[in-house]
Inverse folding.
């Protein structure tokens, strides 16, 4: 069986399509979608840490009340 070697390539960080080696995205649309997803993830992280901080404050305040 003959061995077939693919040229060096990477995969788009957004959709997974093959792209030339060293490139991150296959199109400007994928680049924009990745930036939007990153922005959404940052807001989710901020919300999560905010909720955790409030929960810790409530617990500490509740312990100190009695």
């Amino acid at each position: 069986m003959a061995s077939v070697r693919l040229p060096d390539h990477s995969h788009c960080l957004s959709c997974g399509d093959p792209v030339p080696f060293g490139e991150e995205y296959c199109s400007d649309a994928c680049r924009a979608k990745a930036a939007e997803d990153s922005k959404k993830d940052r807001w989710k992280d901020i919300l999560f840490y905010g909720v955790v901080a409030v929960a810790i404050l409530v617990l500490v305040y509740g312990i100190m009340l009695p």
Observations:
- Residues 9-64 form one domain.
- Helices lie at 28-64.
- The chain has a mean pLDDT of 91.
- The chain has one domain: 9-64.
